[in-house]
Design brief:
Strand order of the largest sheet: 2-1-5-4-3
CATH topology of the largest domain: Beta-Lactamase
CATH class of the largest domain: Alpha Beta
CATH architecture of the largest domain: 2-Layer Sandwich
CATH superfamily of the largest domain: Transcription factor LuxR-like, autoinducer-binding domain
Structural class: alpha+beta
Number of helices: 11
């Protein structure tokens, strides 16, 4: 029993060390891309997730606004800006569940519980159906009358979260996002590497990476060795000034959108 206690204590200390680093790194966030990079590089260590959908507004009238931070290229703020879509009733349902549960965060690992399978399959919903779990966290805005809901989707089933760490971290995520200007059609952030020029082969590799393909998959699809794929990605990372696959995908997508 003593050994088990030490393991649990060690695990708790590790969680709080991560939390301290997360808060420290958030202080330099100024742009939407900084927020995404912070989520994937630091926050994901404590709250594993692939997509964060933030919504705020009036959940009774359905007048909602959205912001998205996602490693999946088919799930982004631009898609939600295009007009009516099936994500609104989904998010509204998750909000009412949160309110009915005493305004406490909750996790769903059963996709049927989310009600997505009953919605008409648009591209956004089809992408969300690939997720295995969802964490829902809400906040009341009594002054602005705009309640806010944070929905974190993950391709992995949640095996449990540290409740104490989560109760501290989620309000900090809320406060951090409020410092970042909301992405609107007229607000386009300058990508960190707008003038980066990738070779045709590097673009091919990144297109497959954005579709979620592994190095092994890309090797087979392009008829090149895995080492060649890795070398292409290494050069892409250097050109985009990123250190992870998720960061490369996000920066590549921003650059491509600016070129279009």
């Amino acid at each position: 029993m003593k050994g088990k206690g030490k393991i649990e204590l060690s695990h708790t200390m590790h969680d709080w060390d991560n939390l301290s680093e997360i808060i420290k790194q958030s202080l330099s966030i100024k742009k939407h891309y900084d927020f995404f990079e912070w989520l994937q590089t630091y926050v994901a260590k404590s709250i594993p997730h692939d997509v964060l959908i933030a919504s705020w507004g009036n959940y009774t009238t359905g007048q909602l606004h959205f912001d998205v931070a996602s490693v999946d290229p088919s799930i982004n703020t631009g898609v939600l800006m295009e007009g009516d879509h099936e994500v609104s009733p989904l998010i509204t349902d998750l909000y009412h569940r949160w309110a009915a549960m005493g305004e406490r965060w909750y996790v769903l690992n059963n996709f049927n519980e989310m009600g997505i399978d009953t919605l008409e399959k648009c591209s956004l919903i089809s992408s969300l159906t690939q997720m295995k779990s969802v964490l829902v966290y809400g906040t009341r805005d009594l002054r602005g009358k705009n309640d806010c809901l944070y929905v974190l989707f993950s391709k992995q089933v949640s095996n449990g979260l540290n409740s104490s760490v989560l109760d501290v971290l989620m309000p900090h995520i809320d406060a951090t996002l409020r410092r970042v200007e909301c992405l609107l059609p007229e607000i386009i952030e300058e990508p960190l590497s707008l003038k980066v020029s990738l070779t045709s082969r590097e673009n091919e590799v990144m297109e497959w990476v954005c579709m979620g393909k592994t190095n092994d998959d890309i090797s087979t699809l392009l008829g090149i060795s895995i080492n060649t794929v890795k070398n292409h990605l290494k050069r892409v990372f250097n050109k985009l000034n990123v250190i992870s696959r998720a960061q490369a995908v996000a920066q590549y997508q921003v650059t491509v959108e600016q070129i279009k």
